[in-house]
Design a protein that fits this description.
Layout (H helix, E strand, L loop, with lengths): L2 H12 L3 H14 L3 H60 L6 E2 L7 E7 L6 E2 L10 H9 L4 E6 L5 E8 L11 E8 L1 H36 L1 H16 L12 H52 L17 H28 L10 E4 H15 L4 E6 L3 E4 L1 H18 L5 E7 L2 E5 L32 H11 L3 E6 L5 E6 L6 H6 L8
Parallel strand pairs: 1-3, 8-10
Antiparallel strand pairs: 2-6, 4-5, 5-6, 7-9, 10-11, 11-13, 12-13
Helix pairs in contact: 3-5, 7-8, 9-10, 10-11
Catalytic activity: ATP + protein L-histidine = ADP + protein N-phospho-L-histidine
Subcellular location: Cell membrane
Protein name: histidine kinase
Length: 515
């Protein structure tokens, strides 16, 4: 097998055909046409084509009906003439008289020709023979059955419609075979069809005009809600005002406006959260920055150019080594607190939905890893751990950060040689300590951003750790709660949806993250 030929075949198979290229070209051209113009043109074409097709169908139907009626009338007259010819022929043969001419009734704009199968034309009273029978007419006369219709254009431009019928033979008087040819001018019929054509054209033009008006009306009225929505979005982009727009009706455009209002509400709520976060962050950052500024100013005074070297004491500008070490430790502690606060602010400033793709997580493993990490930071505490497997779809790093914050909070409030109890059952993680507990007035607010009880303001921390726990729980479809532990300390709970077995978690779709 030739690899180059095979590659060329695959390239040819993957290449779009003329129809696909034409459709892509039309789609590209239509994408540059305004939506209002496209809707107007679509309605005009649809209505115009419908009216035109209806007018054409009516014209064809009426035209066929008129022509059929004309042929029927012509055939009836020819049959009557053929019966009269038969009678006159039989009468002449009965009396053995020569048949010199036929006496037949005449009709307006109608000529009658009587002939036999030998192409002999007879004389008809008051109707001179103007037409010669054709081969088809002679065959009708010879066979004695059938009819022959045809239209002939004369030298003066007149059109005539002809029909040939046979003359029935009487068995008692056998002889030559005759036929009757009846020719009638189509002038009146053509005039009627001409008027019908004019009326059809006028109706089609009127229909196209109505289609144009309907298209313009539909384009304006149908896209009016879209115009209002566009004006609202432009107003929001120009002014930043997130007030909802008025919604009218219950159709698809009303649903679009409702969704837009929901988006504006969510955006306004997000902006409010950002403003509140910035305000709270500014308030919380002010304290460590002020303390650091004070300490740095004191260090500058001590080690500045105005200080006397080698001197110590209140008026010397020098401090002892112990005071200097305490001052530097205080600055270092403030810097660490500021770093923790900045990290927590970065964590809370992320979007509500996790950025990483969810993956299978065993919450029990996450809890054990977090306990190992906190145990290294708090070696004086005991950890009573009882966890059961709990599988879910989520972000392991975010979940470990949340569990670590719960454990850090318990370690901070636990006394020396205290015990932190950790339980995980059916997706409910409970962390309790033996500290002073949480006051009843503070229980509803412990998971709020920057909330710190009066007792907690003297303790290190940013006031954002438990807020991060709540955000992680909501991102994974869970919830948080706070209560008093039986030992008198704080009891913090984190519940996450999932399954006790990995197989059940794999078969079930993960719950959508909370907005």
């Amino acid at each position: 097998m030739n690899p180059f030929a095979e590659a060329e075949r695959h390239d040819h198979e993957g290449r779009p055909g003329p129809y696909e290229r034409l459709r892509a070209r039309i789609t590209e051209l239509m994408s540059h046409v305004p939506l209002r113009t496209r809707i107007t043109a679509l309605v005009m074409v649809a209505v115009g084509v419908s009216v035109a097709l209806a007018s054409m169908a009516a014209f064809v139907t009426v035209r066929n009906q008129i022509l059929s009626q004309t042929d029927t009338t012509l055939y009836n007259h020819a049959s009557q003439a053929a019966q009269m010819v038969q009678g006159q022929v039989e009468e002449a043969r009965r009396y053995q008289q020569p048949l010199l001419q036929f006496d037949l009734p005449t009709y307006s704009d109608t000529k009658v020709v009587v002939f036999n199968s030998d192409d002999q034309v007879y004389v008809v009273k008051d109707s001179p023979p103007m037409f010669k029978p054709s081969e088809a007419d002679l065959q009708v006369a010879l066979n004695g059955e059938g009819t022959a219709f045809r239209t002939v254009k004369l030298a003066d431009g007149t059109r005539v419609r002809m029909v040939t019928v046979p003359v029935a033979q009487n068995a008692a008087f056998p002889g030559e075979h005759q036929g009757v040819l009846l020719a009638e001018s189509t002038h009146d019929t053509q005039q009627t069809l001409g008027r019908l054509t004019l009326v059809s054209i006028l109706v089609g033009i009127a229909g196209i005009a109505v289609a144009g008006s309907a298209g313009i009306t539909v384009g304006r009225t149908g896209l009016r809600p879209v115009d209002r929505l566009t004006e609202a979005t432009e107003y929001v982009a120009r002014t930043g005002d997130l007030r909802p727009i008025e919604v009218q009706g219950t159709d698809e455009l009303a649903r679009l406006a409702t969704s837009f209002n929901a988006m504006l509400t969510a955006l306004a709520r997000s902006q409010e959260h950002q403003r509140r976060l910035i305000a709270d962050a500014g308030h919380e950052l002010r304290t460590p920055l002020t303390s650091m500024r004070t300490n740095i100013d004191l260090l500058a005074q001590v080690f500045g150019p105005g200080a006397e070297p080698g001197a110590e004491g209140p008026g010397s500008g020098r401090i002892s080594d112990a005071d200097r070490a305490e001052l530097i430790a205080d600055v270092r502690a403030q810097m660490e607190e500021l770093s923790v606060l900045v990290g927590d602010l970065v964590e809370l400033s992320r979007d509500a939905t996790p950025q990483a793709a969810p993956e299978p997580v065993n919450l029990a493993d996450v809890v054990r890893q977090a306990v190992d990490r906190v145990r290294r930071r708090a070696p004086h505490l005991k950890f009573d751990i009882q966890v059961e497997p709990w599988f879910l779809e989520g972000d392991p790093a975010t979940l470990e950060r949340a569990v670590t914050n719960l454990l850090d909070n318990a370690a901070k409030w636990s006394p020396e040689d205290g015990t932190v109890t950790v339980r995980l059952t059916d997706g409910l993680l409970q962390v309790s300590d033996e500290g002073p507990g949480i006051a009843d007035a503070d229980l509803p607010h412990v998971f709020e951003r920057f909330y710190r009880s009066p007792e907690a303001r003297t303790m290190p921390g940013s006031g954002l750790g438990l807020a991060i726990v709540r955000q992680a729980a909501e991102n994974h479809g869970g919830r948080v709660a706070a209560a008093r532990a039986p030992s008198g300390g704080a009891l913090l709970g984190l519940w996450l949806p999932g399954h006790p077995t990995e197989e059940a978690a794999a078969e079930t779709d993960p719950p959508p993250p909370a907005a």
